[in-house]
Amino acid sequence: MENIRNFCIIAHIDHGKSTLADRLLQATGSVSDRDYQDQLLDDMDLERERGITIKSHAIQMNYEYEGKAYVLNLIDTPGHVDFSYEVSRSIAACEGALLIVDATQGVQAQTISNVFLAMEHDLEIIPILNKMDLDAAMPDEVKDQIIELIGCTRDEIIVASGKTGLGVQEILETVVKKIPVPKGNVDAPLQALIFDSVYNQYRGIEAYFKILNGTIRKGEQVKFFATEKEYFADEIGVLKFKQEARKELKAGDVGYIISGIKTAKEVKVGDTLTSKDRPCTEAISGFEDVKPMVFAGIYPIDADDYEDLREAMEKLQLNDASLTFEPESSAALGFGFRCGFLGLLHMEIVQERLDREFDMDVITTVPNVSYRVLTNKGEIIEVHNPSGLPGITTIDYIEEPYIRAQIISQTEYVGQVMKLCIEKRGVLKNQIYLPNDRVEVSFEMPLAEIVFDFYDKLKSISRGYASFDYHQTGYDKANLARLDILLNGEMVDALSTLIHKDNAYNFGRRMCEKLKELIPRQQFDIAIQAAIGAKIIARETVKAVRKDVTAKCYGGDITRKRKLLEKQKKGKKRMRQVGNVEVPQQAFLAVLKLD
Q: Which domain holds residue 331?
């Protein structure tokens, strides 16, 4: 165990951790030149295009230092706030962390939240100043920010560049010198932390784990704590560039297990793996079921594709256990699924993958969060869909999820950032002035307010400089109402939203105006109304396309014209009773882009 070092990389999005990981792999000869490509650990096309890490990866490197052979296990983490639970499990599987800060951008919001996560787990943090080859680098200022954040000395900060390979040898040496040896007892009962799982279509689910105590051998029977399922360890091994099978793995090792598991739900990130014959007494702390934060309906554009969509969702769920879905039907859109996502980026990625990997054209309804409804009888109902809200008369009060948002921005934009947060019902909790003309503000605000367009607005008012991070704090009472859209008196359930009463009138009016532009004219008048309960709060009318029935009358008595118009009026009325209004797909998307 003295020769094992387990570490992860923590950084804000786009601070160059995947590139630096590439250099570490090359420097240790873990990957041959033939297999090498940029962003080696990001193996999804989407990750490469967007330059973000969606799925965390682990890889083992062999490194020789002062005549001793060391095994370095790098556990890569996603940077985005939606995947913060995965990050916390990856951090729990390590003894040390490389903190990477971009020399051109400085410390940003997620850097701070990930550093606090690492500090909670008592990790040894090695600060690295990346992108030093760029002309825009500000080494002295950013070093000050790092020193203030983690309290290290100036000499401890390693200057590096993922592009040119500067500082890579120094990083490897520091990892060996500074990161503690894994603690653990080889003879104790097996206790291993599962920090990730991937789906292999030929072999089922592969779970990645780090052994805290004990030994695991090929062929022995293992048990998962959270699901209480038992399996045989058909194959165990270590995660080199390609997987390498081993007969046994001991405390401190990071490896994978293949045991023929077919459903992703049976392997939970953060679960404890133990032996059936000699189990450990308690699970590793910190396990929680991943809870979806944002919900949206996904419907096929063509109703005949419903079964194909179900198949695609099931396959996607094998790769992404945090996606949840259940069937639902809507009067406007037919049959589809109600899906739960970790956040907005997660939702975007799922849509993109459905399109790319399964060629599915889908309509997504307005995203919303889950609300808790307390009824007069004292029951608590969880509502993921506005149309699932019980009648107003039976509701005592509604609670909505709240978040603590951390925003770091340049001082010149702080006024606009605050104005935006207050508009979104935020309450200022804290404001700290950081070195180099930057401010960190903390707000408590409802999660529902950031689901729509908060992130885009924040980026545009701060010219892309503000960085944003959030975590859920709990539920709080809210003054909410269900806003329904009626077309000719019939409710379109897919356009219903739960909204704060103060914003309902404005939102309803804007919705009606937008729909008036988008709904094509029919042979009869279409009334578009926004309603809260039985009260109509806004109305627009799409005028009928009319034929001039009086064209053939010239001269003569007015009653002849009146008779023809009355006849037309009757026809229009009858038409309106049997005619139905088609809502175009743009209308559902328009709700998201009302501004």
A: 294-365
